[in-house]
Amino acid sequence: MNPLSNLSAEMEELLGSFMSQPIEGDLIFGLTNYIFWMGVAVILLFVVLFAFKRKQAQSLVPQGVFVNGVESVIDFVKDGICKSTLGDTWQKHFPFLAALFFFILINNMVGLLPGGHPGTGTIGVTGALAMWSFVYFVYVGIKRMGAFGYIKSLAPKGVAFPVNLVVWLIEVFSTFLRLVTLAVRLFCNMFAGHVVMATFAILASLFFEPLLHGFSMVALGQAGASVFWVAILLAIYGVEILVGVIQAYVFTLLSSVYIQLVEEEE
Fold first, then answer.
1. How far apart are CA 147 and CA 157, in angstroms?
2. pLDDT digits (tens, 9 = 90+) for 52-99
3. Measured between alpha carbons, how far is residue 174 from residues 10, 77, 155 in Å?
């Protein structure tokens, strides 16, 4: 029996399992599989942060792999994103950007658990994150320049009418496009990565399954091929860990860039 003969049916079931499915209620007002795992991620994040604060308070000098590791990540967000992008204004925006980074990161990592569905793997959650980022940098712009001043700032100075109106419309569209690109980029990377990993897991199981039904040299050879698929799966798993970190960094970095643009708008 060709192990690949069942691949189509398995892939159809796989893609169905990655769709939002209600655990309680319905898709509109219920608890879905993605929201459940997002809740798990948030609880885990609070546990990590409370444990970090407790251990950190035990000594003036950071001690232990856990405390030093968390402090390294915090310093990375502070120095690698906030200070390098926002300059002197980094402190007032650090809490928001750090919350974004850690929320996305913990969801991406929880999604790598067997059977896990990352909150960032659904467009509803990534859309909400993008909306918060959008509202935040628009709020910063309005607070700094006033509502009319911010709207006016979208058109460059020194450009004659009606060219300035055309440029203003393009900038308005570009500003709203940031919301879409933030949401779609994060969603697509997380969703596609987990589908790829699950595909290789299915291939490994399909090639090993004949050996469970009866021993033969053909079945043994197919089971040996499953080792190849497992090796690729492990390699992709490592890549997905890196992608999860990179996507949290990219989302937060772009948000800080948008904040910087309105902070330094002249």
1. 17
2. 888 888 777 777 788 888 889 999 999 889 888 888 888 889 999 999
3. 41, 26, 12
Q: Measuring CA to CA, which residue among 27, 40, 173, 182 is closest to residue 100? A: 182
Q: What is the pLDDT of residues 135-189, one digit of tens each?
A: 999 999 888 888 888 888 777 776 667 777 888 888 888 888 888 999 999 988 8
Our count of domains for the chain comes to: 1
Give pTM, 2 decimals.
Answer: 0.84
Name beta bridge partners: 24. Answer: 31
DSSP 215: -
Instruction: Provide the token pair at 168.
Output: 């203003």
Q: Which helix (H) or strand (E) holds 214?
A: none
Residue 58 has which token pair? 């035990």
**Taking the CA atoms of the chain, what radius of gyration do you get in angstroms?**
24
Q: Residue 126 has which token pair?
A: 């990534």
Within a 13 Å sphere around the CA of 257, how many CA atoms are in the beta-carbon half?
9
Domain assignment of residue 187, given as a range: 3-263
Single out the residue of 123, 95, 118 nearest to residue 255, CA to CA.
95
Torsion of CA 203, 208, 213, 215, to 10 degrees: 140
CA-to-CA separations, 103 to 29, 65, 74, 98, 249, in angstroms, rounded:
23, 21, 13, 8, 11
* Nearest 10 degrees: Cα torsion 230, 232, 238, 240: -110
> Is 220 within 8 Å of 211 (Cβ atoms)?
yes
| b/e map 76-106, b = 16+ CB within 10 Å | ebbeebbbebbeebbeebbebbbebbbbbbb
**Alpha-carbon distance 15 to 12, whole Å?**
5
